[in-house]
Design goal:
8-stranded antiparallel barrel, two-stranded antiparallel ribbon, about 40% strand, globular
């Protein structure tokens, strides 16, 4: 993150967390990234890490704001650790999931990451998220974009998607992490990185290292 932008985003996140804390302790908690299982620096055999927390503007999708936090670390021995949570309120009910990371892939040049794992808690009340595909132990995935500039020098902002579940694009977390970061999903004409289904942050930030 660049210095001026980082300062602004940090102040925004602290302001949001304080405001939410007055009305909902558990929502305030998920505006901050979970405590990492290992250091986010590149010591301790860490190949790369992605972490973030804040509020995603899902208004373009008609589902309101999304409160989120996550960390995901890939180590040199091939193991992956991390946790994630996202909550959003919709007219049909709450959508709220927590999980553990089982795979993460990154494109450091584009500052993009795919993160996937297993549901550990489903607090949802929305009936569409209480099916056999949304139970504890089922696979879940999402993707994030860290702030950067594109090849033409245009700014690209921090952004995230809602959570996906089978059979959205793929059937498993491992298949999701294996998807490319550009072009199309193999064997289809579906964009592998659909810009229409990833949304900017209102507050907070996302960081991808290295």
């Amino acid at each position: 993150m660049h210095n001026a932008s980082s300062t602004f985003k940090l102040l925004s996140l602290l302001t949001v967390a304080a405001a939410v804390g007055c009305s909902s302790e558990h929502e305030a908690a998920i505006t901050q990234p979970p405590a990492p299982s290992v250091s986010f620096n590149q010591g301790n055999g860490v190949l790369y890490s992605v972490n973030g927390g804040g509020i995603v503007d899902f208004s373009l999708a008609g589902v309101g704001d999304g409160w989120f936090s996550f960390n995901a670390v890939k180590k040199a021995d091939g193991s992956v650790v991390g946790r994630f949570r996202q909550r959003r309120d919709t007219p049909a009910g709450v959508v709220d999931f927590s999980g553990i990371v089982t795979c993460v892939t990154v494109d450091a040049t584009l500052q993009r990451a795919r993160i996937a794992g297993t549901i550990t808690k489903n607090r949802s009340t929305h009936p569409d998220f209480l099916t056999t595909n949304h139970e504890v132990g089922d696979d879940v995935w999402f993707r994030v974009q860290a702030e950067t500039v594109d090849a033409n020098g245009n700014p690209v902002v921090d952004a995230s998607t809602t959570y996906g579940f089978r059979p959205t694009l793929v059937q498993t977390s491992e298949q999701y992490c294996a998807l490319p970061f550009t072009g199309f999903v193999p064997g289809t004409t579906i964009q592998a990185w659909n810009p229409g289904s990833i949304f900017p942050l209102e507050a907070g930030n996302i960081q991808l290292l290295p």
